[in-house]
Amino acid sequence: MILVTGATGNVGREVVNLLLSGGEKVVAVTRNPAKAALPDGAHMVGGDPSRPQTLMPALRGVDVVFISPRALGDATAELLKLAAEQGAQRVVLLSAVTVQDGGGEKRFADAFKAVEDAAKASGLPWTILRSAEYASNNLMWAPQIRSTGKVKGAYGDAANSTIHERDIAAVSALALVDAAHAGHTYVLTGPQSLSQRDRVRLIGEAIGREVSWEEISPQQVRQAMLAQGLPEDVPDSLLGYWSGLVQQPGPSSDTVEQVLGRPALTFAEWAVEHAAAFRS
Fold first, then answer.
1. Is the pLDDT of residue 105 over 90?
2. For residues 90 and 16, what is the distance between their CA atoms, to the nearest angstrom?
3. What is the dihedral of CA 78, 80, 85, 89, to 10 degrees?
4. Residue 123 region by backbone torsions, left for phi larger than 0, else alpha for psi between -120 and 50, else beta
5. Which CATH class is domain 2-134+164-190+251-264?
6. For residue range 180-239, what is the model confidence (pLDDT) as tens digits?
7. DSSP assigned state of 211
């Protein structure tokens, strides 16, 4: 039996679908079961992963735990301790490539490193999946593209190999069912390094409309983010990350192809699949 935290997220939902299609028993954790809209085959459990005690009934009989740090906050160590006490055998953890390359922003790296350390200290055999930036993060551009046909942003030349969320989910599902992946740390990226400008252009091609990048100052971007209600440290972290990617593009790897036996999905494919979100 496999327990999935973050089961309604972009990756977690696809992990649940893949596991169920493979005949696995899945316990899907969600804060709001009534709105989760998960497949009938999943055993949905209402609870707050950031308060692991609320998940105690769900942990009984679980063999493998899938950790989505966004769902847990700083509660990974506590959840894995409880899971191990209930008989769990392994853990698969979503992390980020910033742990090893920094990406220009230490705050991100430190947060994921702390989660990795918690998994390693749990005593459970672990698999760590260090992913590049999710392609789905680019959905933040959708309102601008729909209304103006352009994206205003800073550091348009910042480049990395964004990864399709379905590829992350596919590797995750394989690691969850096959203990041979225990003890491995995988760097997961898309197949091609693309700048922000490149990705905007590819979204335009996907929707059949010319979409352009308009460079504005980091301070303008920061003010716009603050106006949206983001905490003050978030714009600084993101701008630091993008600035670093101008000087040193994010890493690329062929691990997805090695693990799955097929090429990693491209950003262009992702853009076509999500074209409706960008059309006015």
1. no
2. 17
3. 180
4. left
5. alpha beta
6. 999 999 999 999 999 999 999 999 999 999 999 999 999 999 999 999 888 888 888 889
7. -
Domain ranges for the chain? 2-134+164-190+251-264
Instruction: Report how far residue 192's alpha carbon sits from residue 249's, in angstroms, rounded to the nearest whole number.
Output: 11
The 10 Å Cβ neighbour count of residue 111 is 17
At which residue do the structure tokens 């603050």 appear? Answer: 226
Order of strands, edge to edge, in the sheet holding 43-46?
43-46, 26-30, 2-4, 64-67, 90-96, 126-131, 185-188
Tokens of 189: 């990226």
Q: Are the C-beta atoms of residues 65 and 49 closer than 8 Å to each other?
A: no
The residue among 176, 179, 181, 193 whose CA lies nearest residue 251 is 193
For 213-262, the DSSP string reads EEE--HHHHHHHHHHTT--THHHHHHHHHHHHHHHSPPP---HHHHHHSS
Q: Which two tokens stand for residue 256?
A: 């997805």
229 - beta bridge partners? none
Contact yes or no for 107/73 (Cβ under 8 A): no
